[in-house]
Design goal:
The complex is a heterotetramer. Chain A is α/β, with parallel strands linked by helices. Helices cover 26% and strands 29% of the residues of chain A. Chain B has 14 helices and eight strands. In chain B, the strands form three sheets. A three-stranded antiparallel β-sheet of chain B has the order 1-2-3. In chain B, strands 6-7-8 form a three-stranded antiparallel β-sheet. In chain B, helix 3 packs antiparallel against helix 4 and helix 4 packs antiparallel against helix 5. The longest helix of chain B is centred in the first third of the chain and has 29 residues. Chain B is globular. The two termini of chain B are 37 Å apart. By secondary structure, chain D is α/β, with parallel strands linked by helices. In chain D, 39% of the residues lie in helices and 12% in strands. In chain D, the strands form two sheets. In chain D, strands 3-4-5 form a three-stranded parallel β-sheet. Chain D has a two-stranded parallel ribbon with strand order 1-2. The longest helix of chain D is centred in the C-terminal third of the chain and has 16 residues. Chain D is globular and about 40 Å long. Chain D starts with 8 loop residues before the first helix and ends in a 7-residue tail after the last helix. Classes of the chains: A alpha/beta, B alpha+beta, C alpha/beta, D alpha/beta. Chains in contact: A-B, A-C, A-D, B-C, B-D, C-D. Chains B and C meet through helix 2, helix 5, strand 5 and helix 6 of B and helix 1 and helix 2 of C. Chain C: Pfam families: Fer4_20 (PF14691), Fer4_7 (PF12838), Pyr_redox_2 (PF07992). Chain C: Keywords: Iron, Iron-sulfur, Metal-binding.
Chain lengths: 165, 369, 598, 177
């Protein structure tokens, strides 16, 4: 049963975090270089962080980076870890975490569909939520949904009653 | 396996046995499913994209629409995410009211899913009762928040309006009615009914290891003797002021999960009574200034709470602007609905596929988003 | 399994429902009213609504758009637009009701509207909702759900004792954090812009403060007002009177925010920010008569357009009434000079101590320059001419204020009376209070005015601040006579009751009641009942049209003589911002006139 | 049965019978479907008016489009609609079917239902309450009884218009008719 500080010591000793922060009670965030991340996942999994809540992806368009965030939780420490790493937006390739958590295959598939990130080692990346989608992956910041909608669909003008200024 | 005896079945998205607009494509041999995969995406509206286009206050109206069975969970997690990044204190009375709303939502969610599960095995009486009981709770919601289903009531910084005293009395009366009349009837009709027990016992078994590996929480874990509940592990709102137990069972099958739903409801009634009894006075909303200019500093937070199906979390990122930079929704049944179907549905008999899907509480809008 | 009770007969309990009354709601036979707080269809009180479109701004689904309502008058403080709600978009969230600045938009408990034709799902709600039937009120906003920030940030001010001791500026201004919080209160509805005499881009420059981009604010301000430091302190701020937030709360402090924006930008960067580092010069020359707010405004906008400007000023420094009328504790000279120096840096020449009509004639200006802008203002104090005003202890406020501004010695007696109810009366009363405190250590000043306190033209804050500084008010009194002792010193001012100031047609026509007499001993009287101007330098040489006491000008401040433009108090008053507007109009007018478009 | 229906006394009897028992397809396309269980079960009980759920399109004649339609659901809804036997009726629930509703700027939902399917009527709401649904269904019964609910007729007459709109959004659509 570690507290946040002990957890951070463990991480600083065994992994090479770029930045570590106690965000709030029971919440820690750790930044790692892409090459150390997969190894960090298996390390933490063997240290009671068995629960992978989900994998999130954030598109930092201006900084040309995708930020992948792995949310782990331990049933002993009751602490959330957000493991963060940044990969280049082009080409946007990362390794799969499927061997450590098989369920990660579907989180990666979701990120691939909405951000276009390739996960080497995960061959199950075809379309799941959208259907024959030919445009930019929609969650990328450079995809403008309002512009897309305005030229795909027409709006009802309530035979002239709708006043659009 | 000889191909000629293999057939592919599209189970859903239009099928009474399927929990919502969601499909499972499975192959079977004889009477047993051999392989299956989820056919999701029918309810995808791109919430996460829409949220990036709207001011913070506007998303309070959009967010409950993510999961229609439990709108209040989404409102709560969104508000908690905003408060975590912005380090905003919520008045204690608002915490109490939020917990009351969340427990009422838990009861209406559980009773509705017990009804749904019963319909899955043909017990239509219990379905009628489940929906009827839920409707009485919706009447209470309508009185508190002004809407039946989408309450738009829990807001960053507190709740929208206070609860009047006579509404508290109505809640307490309803709790008594549930505990003394409706649940005993339900107990006799469903839980002591041998047909129902046989129909659910040993079905859709998910062991503790499989659940932890997959990241499934809530009833799936608690049916394997693991007393994990975020209201105890990471207390939020007013849960640190109330006593309640976390019911667990041993076998990890559908029958245990439905009994957990029943016991959860009884605990929720106990919680609501304690909350109403010692609710403090005071304001219910911190003053965050002009609603059109809500702004929190740059930062991110992963916040999660215990919905009736387990951990429901948002990963929220703010770039210090007037709109969220990114919100990632982690529904409670995401691992089961996508990965669990492929891994654990095979081996189930065809007639039990609805039992499998409904007892695991697969709620498609959570992972379609 | 062992502990699971099982019995084949337990479901039989359900049969007891056969005898119970069914729980089905017999809708539609029995109507089923929604709850008290139900969010139903919208209703809107069209009189109370001011068309500020804040509901449109908060609408989650772009369901609200503003519709022209021709039968609604577009007077000051409101627009003749009303919200139209598209029920093909609305999600009944009620945020519009929570943010409504006047509280006119509400929701009924009505929830049922069915139609074959989708094009009928749009409505401009009035007191009836879409079903044109009266339904009880549903969801109502309360102090918890209110989305507006109704409380103003109180700006730091010196307390009264410290104020009376000196002429230092009484208002200390916003800190960065205060300014951003105050700026966040604005809902950007632009009703203030419609009301501002100079139509300044107020929400835009407030947004610049909120976004921490003060350069953006300065750019927005200078588009319509080249004297922001001045207006940030002494403007009559009509905008705050009509601010949408003032309906349910306190108006946004628009004036103090303008001051914050320019106080925190170094004038050395103005040229870079406003893009006036190098102005492409055209070879036309314009003469400006009078360096008051109107003259400076015209000079600024003309020089930005590339004209060569020469300003003729009969006093020894620029600013006009801003320098010689408004005391330093309200408008410090360094703030005034910051504005003026920027205008000078644009290449505007100033010729001081030169009175047009004496040192140089208007006709000569007409020859030497392509156009002339006259803005000489009203600098001669008017007298009540009641018996005793010829005594030498009776002074004109404007002359005293000018001398105080020049730092000259000014007669200060132990007990004095000021006649007048406007801002000039407040300025002289509070200035003399400071001088009395300095000389005698106590304040003994009485201010009488025809108007009763509620219709006194002075700002309400000014009256309160003056009272705090020990000045006594005797409103609603008509000056009858100043009694003089044999040795020429004053005995007292006799006043009667002023029953009404204006007649039905709102013309200045005071009526008095002589039976109610009150006398105030005093050894000095200062008259501040208004100023007159000396337009002889124009009238002697040119035939020019007047509109009452003021020169008649068109929308481009052009007088009846085509090359002569006029602005400020001689053409349109009564305050600095109107002078700035007439100066700006003149600049545009002159530019058009010289390009033969006028 | 040829496509142009014979209007006459026989049809009136059919219409009368039709409106007495309407089979509503049990297909929750959008979030508005959560208000159907209370309407179908004992609290508001639409079966008092002869309206009950039907599992498959073959046995259904009323298709409730309960709210928004993602493009994926639209394709399946068109298959479902074209499998239903005439006379068949479509009722639009809530704002999403009229002008896009809350998801007006979503890249994955359609904005106006009447471009893709003939709609008998719209019920305002987000989502409509059970009482509003009952009002709508009772009005539909009257329309059927007076023979005004001719959506399926309009679909036949303007098949090209509907198919073009559908294909504009979905690309190629398998047709059963």
């Amino acid at each position: 049963m570690r507290n946040e500080k002990e957890l951070l010591e463990l991480i600083n000793v065994h992994l090479e975090p770029q930045a570590v922060e106690i965000k709030r009670e029971q919440n820690v965030s750790v930044e790692l270089a892409p090459k150390n991340l997969i190894q960090a996942l298996s390390f933490l999994k063997s240290h009671s962080y068995q629960h992978l809540s989900t994998i999130s992806c954030v598109d930092w368009l201006e900084e040309g980076a995708f930020e992948l965030v792995y949310h782990l939780f331990s049933y002993d420490d009751y602490i959330n870890i957000s493991l963060k790493t940044r990969i280049k937006r082009e080409p946007g390739i990362f390794q799969t975490a499927k061997e450590i958590w098989p369920v990660a295959e579907f989180y990666e598939r979701d990120i691939h569909e909405f951000f276009g990130v390739e996960f080497k080692g995960n061959d199950n990346l075809e379309e799941m939520i959208l259907e024959n989608w030919q445009h930019l992956p929609p969650m990328r910041k450079d995809f403008d949904t309002r512009e897309f909608v305005n030229d795909q669909y027409e709006w009802r003008d309530y035979n002239g009653q709708k006043h659009t200024d | 396996m000889d191909k000629s005896t293999q057939t592919e079945i599209f189970f859903g998205p239009n099928h009474p046995g399927v929990p919502g607009n969601y499909g499972i494509i499975y192959e079977f041999e004889g009477d047993t499913v051999t392989s299956a995969k989820a056919n999701a995406g029918h309810l995808h509206r791109g919430f996460e994209k829409l949220m990036e286009e709207r001011l913070w206050i506007k998303n309070t109206a959009l967010v409950p629409r993510i999961c229609v069975e439990e709108p209040d969970i989404n409102e709560m997690v969104y508000a908690m995410g905003f408060e975590a990044i912005g380090e905003i204190e919520v008045p204690r009375r608002a915490d109490y009211i939020r917990s009351i709303i969340l427990e009422l939502a838990r009861i209406q969610g559980h009773i509705f899913s017990i009804g749904g599960n019963a319909a899955g095995i043909g017990q239509y009486t219990v379905m009628h009762w489940g929906t009827l009981t839920r409707d009485y709770i919706l009447d209470i919601f309508e009185e508190i928040t002004g809407a039946r289903v989408y309450h738009i009531y829990i807001r960053p910084g507190g709740v929208r309006q206070d609860i009047e005293d006579e509404t508290f009395d109505k809640i307490l009366d309803l709790m008594d009615e549930l505990e003394n009349e409706r649940f005993p009837d339900l107990e006799k009709t469903l839980f002591e009914n041998p047909n129902a027990q046989k129909r659910w016992q040993g079905k859709a078994v998910i062991t503790k290891e499989e659940a932890v590996e997959m990241g499934a929480t809530g009833p799936v874990l608690r049916a394997n003797g693991v007393p994990h509940d975020l209201r105890k592990m990471m207390p939020y709102a007013a849960y640190d002021d109330v006593e309640f137990e976390v019911p667990t069972y041993e076998n990890g099958d559908a029958w245990d999960r439905i009994k957990i739903a029943r016991d959860d409801m009884l605990q929720s009634i106990k919680i609501i009574r304690q909350l109403i009894q010692n609710i403090p006075d005071g304001p219910v909303q911190t003053d965050l200034g002009n609603g059109l200019k809500y702004k929190i500093p740059k930062g991110d937070a992963y916040v999660k709470i215990e919905s009736k199906r387990g951990e429901y979390g948002y990963y929220m990122v703010s770039d210090g602007g007037l709109k969220p930079y990114r919100v990632h929704v982690r529904g409670a049944s995401t691992p089961l609905g996508l990965y669990g179907v492929r891994e654990f549905l095979p081996g189930t008999r065809i007639a039990d596929v609805p039992v499998w899907a409904k007892s695991l509480g697969i709620c498609p809008p959570e992972f379609d988003r | 399994m062992a502990n699971d009770k099982k019995s084949i007969f337990s479901p039989v309990t359900a049969f007891k429902n056969l005898v119970k009354k069914p729980e089905t709601v017999r809708y539609p036979a029995e109507s089923n009213d929604a709850a008290k707080r139900y969010r139903g269809f919208h209703i809107n009180d069209l009189e109370e609504c001011i068309g500020c479109s804040t509901c449109q701004e908060v609408c989650v689904n772009d369901a609200i758009s503003m519709v022209e309502m021709l039968d609604v008058p577009a007077e000051e403080g409101q627009r003749n637009e009303r919200p139209q709600i598209d029920y093909g978009r609305c999600c009944w969230c009620g945020l519009c009701v929570d943010v409504c600045t006047t509280g006119s938009l509400e929701m009924s408990r009505d929830y049922s509207y069915i139609d074959l034709d989708p094009d009928t799902f749009i409505v401009t709600p009035d007191q009836h909702d879409i079903n044109k039937v009266d339904h009880p009120l549903g969801y109502l906003r309360d102090e918890n759900s209110d989305l507006l920030d109704l409380k103003r940030i109180d700006i730091e001010m010196l307390d009264p004792e410290a104020r009376v001791d000196s002429f230092i500026e009484i208002v200390e201004g916003f800190s960065k954090e205060q300014a951003e919080k105050e700026a966040s209160r604005c809902v950007e509805c632009e009703i203030c812009t419609d009301t501002c005499p100079a139509n300044m881009n107020i929400p835009q420059y407030i947004r610049g403060i909120f976004d921490e981009e003060l350069e953006e604010s300065v750019q927005q301000i200078y588009e319509d007002n080249p004297l922001p430091e001045v207006c940030g302190r002494v403007c009559t701020h009509k905008c705050e009177g009509v601010c949408a937030i003032s309906h349910r709360g306190e108006a946004v402090s628009i004036r103090w925010l303008k001051r914050y924006a320019v106080d925190n930008v170094d004038s050395a960067d103005y040229k870079k920010i406003l893009g006036t580092e190098k102005i492409e010069q055209n070879n036309k020359k314009i003469a400006v008569v009078g360096a008051g707010p109107a003259g400076l405004s015209a000079a600024h906008y003309l020089s930005v357009m590339g004209y060569q400007i020469t300003v003729y000023e009969d006093k020894e420094n620029a600013g006009g009434m801003m320098r010689y009328g408004i005391p330093e504790y309200r408008l410090p000279y360094d703030a005034l000079d910051k504005d003026i120096n920027y205008i000078k840096s644009l290449g505007v020449d100033f010729v001081f101590n030169t009175r047009v009509g004496e040192d140089i004639t208007l006709d000569e200006l007409h020859e030497q320059y392509d156009a002339v802008f006259a803005a000489t203002g009203l600098h001669n104090g008017r007298s009540t001419r009641v018996p005793g005003t010829d005594n030498n202890n009776v002074y004109q406020a404007v002359n005293l204020l000018a001398d105080i501004a020049r730092g000259k010695e000014v007669p200060v007696t132990k007990n004095l009376v000021v006649i007048g109810g406007g801002n000039v009366a407040m300025d002289i009363a509070r200035s003399m209070a400071r001088l009395q405190m300095e000389k005698y250590g106590e304040v003994n000043i009485t201010v009488t005015s025809l108007e009763t306190e509620d219709i006194m033209p002075a700002d309400q804050e000014e009256i309160e601040e003056a009272r705090e500084e020990g000045i006594v008010f005797k409103p609603g009194r008509g000056p009858k006579e100043i009694e003089v002792n044999e040795d020429g010193s004053l005995a007292q001012l006799c006043t009667n009751c002023c029953v009404s100031v204006f007649d039905e047609e709102m013309n200045f026509n005071p009526t008095f009641d002589d039976s109610d007499i009150e006398n105030y001993e005093c050894d000095m009287v200062i008259e501040a009942i208004g100023q007159g101007g000396d337009n002889s330098y124009i009238d002697d040489q040119f035939e020019i049209e007047y509109a009452g006491p003021r020169i008649k000008i068109n929308d481009f401040s052009q007088t009846s003589v085509d090359w002569l433009f006029a602005g400020g108090d001689i053409a349109r008053g009564p305050d600095v911002i109107n002078a700035i507007r007439t100066g700006h109009d003149a600049a545009v007018g002159i530019d058009k006139y010289l390009n033969d478009e006028l | 049965m040829n496509n142009n229906f014979v209007k006459g006394s026989w049809q009136e009897i059919l219409d009368w019978a039709q409106n007495k028992s309407i089979n509503m397809l049990h297909y929750c396309t959008g979030c508005g479907a959560i208000e159907l269980p209370p309407t179908m079960t004992s609290r508001y009980d639409m079966s008092r008016f002869g309206i009950g759920p039907a599992a498959t399109p073959r046995q259904a004649d009323l298709l409730l489009v309960t709210g928004y339609l993602s493009t994926k659901t639209l394709r399946r809804l068109i298959y479902t609609y074209e499998q239903m036997q005439a006379p068949k009726f479509v009722v639009g629930f809530g704002s999403c079917t009229i002008n896009g509703g809350m998801y007006w700027d979503s890249y994955n939902t359609i904005k106006q239902l009447d471009k893709y399917l003939p709609v008998e009527m719209y019920i305002a709401g987000c989502m409509p309450r059970p009482e509003a649904i009952l009002d709508g269904l009772l009005k539909l019964k009257k329309m059927i009884n007076n023979g005004e609910a001719d959506g399926y007729q309009r679909y036949q007459d303007n098949l090209e218009f509907y198919h073009q709109n559908q294909e504009a959004v979905l690309g190629e659509v398998q047709r059963t008719q």
